[in-house]
Amino acid sequence: MTTAITTTSTTELDALAAAAAAAAPVWRAADAATRASWLRAAADALDAHADELVEIADAETRLGATRLRGEVGRTTGQLRLFATVVEEGSYLELTVDDADASAAPPRPELRRMLVGVGPVAVFSASNFPFAFSVAGGDTASALAAGNPVIVKAHSGHPRLSERTAAIVAAALVDAGAPEGSLALVEGREAGNALVQHPVIQAAGFTGSLGGGRALFDLAAGRPDPIPFYGELGSVNPVVITPAAVAARGEALAQGLVGSFTLGVGQFCTKPGVVFVPDGAGFEDRVAGFAAGSSGGPLLTDRITAAFPSGIEHLEADASVTVVTHGLPAEPGSAQPVVLSTDAAAVASRPETLLEECFGPVTLLVRYSSDDELHAALEAVPGSLTATLHSEPSDDVAAVLEVLTRKAGRVLFAGWPTGVAVTWSQQHGGPWPATTSLHTSVGATAIRRFLRPVVFQDAPEALLPEVLRDASLATLPHRRNGVLHTGR
Amino acid sequence: MTTAITTTSTTELDALAAAAAAAAPVWRAADAATRASWLRAAADALDAHADELVEIADAETRLGATRLRGEVGRTTGQLRLFATVVEEGSYLELTVDDADASAAPPRPELRRMLVGVGPVAVFSASNFPFAFSVAGGDTASALAAGNPVIVKAHSGHPRLSERTAAIVAAALVDAGAPEGSLALVEGREAGNALVQHPVIQAAGFTGSLGGGRALFDLAAGRPDPIPFYGELGSVNPVVITPAAVAARGEALAQGLVGSFTLGVGQFCTKPGVVFVPDGAGFEDRVAGFAAGSSGGPLLTDRITAAFPSGIEHLEADASVTVVTHGLPAEPGSAQPVVLSTDAAAVASRPETLLEECFGPVTLLVRYSSDDELHAALEAVPGSLTATLHSEPSDDVAAVLEVLTRKAGRVLFAGWPTGVAVTWSQQHGGPWPATTSLHTSVGATAIRRFLRPVVFQDAPEALLPEVLRDASLATLPHRRNGVLHTGR
């Protein structure tokens, strides 16, 4: 299916930005119950239109109705989690220091909170047309923080983007939110203009390293730079110890194959590089499961057609061999493939061997000593996740130190595909995994779109409601250094 | 006094960076009591050498022994506050979600905390040779977060920088911290290399808009961009209503003169632009106090010599008149001056009239209607502070909305000079006040140098000590969405 490409003009963008700017003070001033009700109204509207949206999404992304229906649930659950976060109130970081006339110099009264930064730009992703797109995590957390959002539609699913934006924008207005709360722009030029627009105060992005870097540079190059929260790419290293192979090699091999082929290898948390002990027979076990694995069509014909060239790029390295291919692919589908190399090659040519490769492929890296393993791990770029499969008998302190430095989520069981949307989730890591010290999934993603303001010696009548003593009694806050739960 | 300019070579910087990289895991792993003891050891050493340090600082900055001694106290108090912050533990943002096998999909156990980002670069300021320099707030918060620091000395006080660094570095090592915990580099080229050095993971800066922007661009232009937390400049708007002039005009005029001439007008929170009601006689009252005010030498001969050109730049605007000068200046001193203009001029030429002007000068801006005031306020650049002097009879909602959007600290009494170092302080604001959504003063400054890591399904033995259940019992944390104080 092809859709005519729509491009938002500069004049249209200016109008949308003006509406967002006008909506911003309303969102910022909305109390917790109101803002939470707006988020839930958006979630309810998406659920009510799930059948229609899944059908459009499947036609545009080929991800399949089952997966896409699950993603709608994840997306509406995410909006509802942020409604809860807003109601709970910790995200405001309410902090009061009472005046102290006896201090030298005397201290004024200070009451601090976080407030929305203003209109936010969100660049949606190709591989999660719901959860990381128009009404995804960036949008949900930006709205929850009290900011209108302008989304740049992904060119891979324009009809879905338009329909989702229309449904959510209408639901917000119906629930009482101002016009201008959510808008959509389309086309690359409009996206570039969006991140540079004076009204926009922060941006969220999920996508490629190249595209993300270009937008990051535009955001940083503004006369008034703004924070750009991008998730750009991740190889998600896995380390398996000899003891783990001995104890549960078969289960590990099966789990790995399931994870790197999940969703045809198009998850940002796909395990792309797996450090395995040399001579332990683990490659053969992986080959056994991978040979029976199925691929499928990738998001678009162009991405599917490009998949083999990424493999060829890896195979061009003299150290790389093919462990196995998966089941033969239908025409227009990607066939799973497992490659292998050795730790010394990775340590010396990381820019060749450790580039993220979209699709059902993983690279096994043989190591024969701790020193080899550590040298190769140090060459791994910042990642969203790192996974360690070890046994209690292993001394993994040194490996764990490196993995914790390289990734935002460290797993000790299971596989990195699958990102629970919870209070503690961390979906972000050192460059190039993300461009900031924040997460794009989970409750604390809201912090990206908030800025602190402290009120000094304010008359109670001029304080925001949440900073008055009556509100503090029921909200989490810190007073004179002491944390109170508000319960 | 002149001091030969020392420049740290690339080879020297590499060695210092390697030492910082080696120290980083030790700082990151140090428990709260240990890290707090290191911060207090640094504070104690500075206090013990206060006489010597104040003498060097006075010779290099001409700020006077009394002010400088107070600044030493502020600096050591700041180090001790961060020791308390480390011990209290909220800064770790400990968050646990227990596993939930009944969820769809099943949820793993997640345990999240913040950890140090790694070695931090700190660029020290000219106007606070202690509190915003080698052992100032950026350094204290970076160390508290568990990171070694490399400071770029300010060229305005090289001997003080060297001596402070030597004292603190020795105190840290004597207290058990690793070599490489604190180092100093000198020279502009070394500073540029520092912010681009692969070992450096974040940078703090206090200084000029031009210098800060150049370093920000270097940080953002790295192959792996790093966060750059800069405080670049602020005009600190003040709004005075007609009712406030009527009720307490004399006290306000006296307070304003005291604030804009404090420290010879060299505070980053100096009230630089003051919106006053036209025809209320406030200018005459300010003139009365300002005519008797004294100036003094600015930080260096070069800055003192440049002061009149900043005034001339403002006076060149046809709307600007001189309200009064202060007492005649000694040779080599800056004479206070009060200028005035009108709100319409400010709204139409903000880039000329609202540029930060270092030294004892302030600009009174007459307004004759709310519309005029609002239009001019919208033109004010992001600032560290905004001050509103009003009376209960005033309707200030619209003014307050703008001021809260423009500044990180909003005052309702007193004057913005003077920044209490407390849990709630916010010293930061929209660009160009600062380059980030964070503060450089107060307890939460520590967040700038931390990154989140979540551990999924970790065996207890492999968890960091603070994330084990036994630690959580006594530390602030969130579990399954519920906040606990740990008391």
UniProtKB/TrEMBL annotation, chains A, B:
Gene3D superfamilies: Aldehyde Dehydrogenase, Chain A, domain 1 (3.40.605.10), Aldehyde Dehydrogenase, Chain A, domain 2 (3.40.309.10). The keyword Oxidoreductase applies. InterPro entries: Ald_DH/histidinol_DH, Ald_DH_C, Ald_DH_N, Aldehyde_DH_dom, Aldehyde_DH_Superfamily, ALDH_KGSADH. Pfam families: Aldedh (PF00171). The keyword Oxidoreductase applies. Keywords: Oxidoreductase. This is Aldehyde dehydrogenase (NADP(+)).
